[in-house]
Amino acid sequence: MSLAPVLSSQNVKDQVSAAEWQTRVDLAACYRLVAMQGWDDLIFTHISAKVPGTHDFLINPYGLMFHEITASSLVKVDQAGNKLMDSPYEINPAGYTIHSAIHEVRHDVVCVLHTHTAAGVAVSAQKQGVLPISQQSTFVLSSLAYHAYEGVALNPEEKARLQADLGDNNFLMLHNHGLLTCAGSIADTFLMMFTFQRACDIQVLAQNGGAELIAIEPQILAGAKAMVAVVTKSAQGMGGALAWPALLRKLDLQDPGYKS
Questions:
Q1: CA-based Rg of the chain, rounded to a whole angstrom?
Q2: pLDDT tens digits, one per residue of 158-211
Q3: Helices 240-254 and 18-37, interaxial angle, to 10°?
Q4: 236 vs 255: CA distance, rounded Å
Q5: Which of 5, 22, 61, 192 could potentially form a cystine with 89 if both were Cys, beta carbons 3.0 to 4.6 Å apart?
Q6: What is the maximal distance between C-alpha atoms in the chain?
Q7: What are the tens digits of pLDDT across the range 4-43?
Q8: Beta partners for residue 77, in sequence order
Q9: What are phi and psi of 110, to 5 degrees?
């Protein structure tokens, strides 16, 4: 049983637009799904989502584990990191630095998801990064960038370098740190992270096998973006809308508290 402070979902719902409430529900679901996958890191790492029609965004309350997060407990902040609604919670300053940097310049991005998984950090510590050795890696390599480690992300001057490194890509590997995905919907962002994480899991397992690895041919990699569009039925994103309803059905059966 959670001992976290309880916020009234009806009270929060009454203070926000219907579009914001739906975003809160979807973002809380994303947090619970990340926890269900075992990608969470206690109270650390973050997922943010832009409040529809604004430059503000929602992010996790610092101190709650991902399986505790609800639609009403999410903290709304502006680009300067100021809380825009009363909340008993603060936000993680490192999370603010990373997420605000991306929301500031990528107006096509609705959601940003950042993880510290063991396999993700392991591959991020490898000089060559993601290897073209799996079908999952071809999806990632079609839109992948890298960012050098500068310590815990507390320096606002790092934001410009992070923005430049990400560019218009949707996958970012933070060297010695972890994985990040961003997209035009919460659903796409989650599915991108699923693919990114799976590519890293496969890479670490393949390397541990000790055998010589087979690299995917460059001409196949060159056509990866077109393949993504066919498989996901979308010219942009990862087709998260196809998987999201099924993911929510699973979550509703196992952990429906995210909606409150």
A1: 18
A2: 999 999 999 999 999 999 999 999 999 999 999 999 999 999 999 999 999 999
A3: 80
A4: 30
A5: 61
A6: 59
A7: 555 556 689 999 999 999 999 999 999 999 999 999 999 9
A8: 57, 83
A9: -100, -40
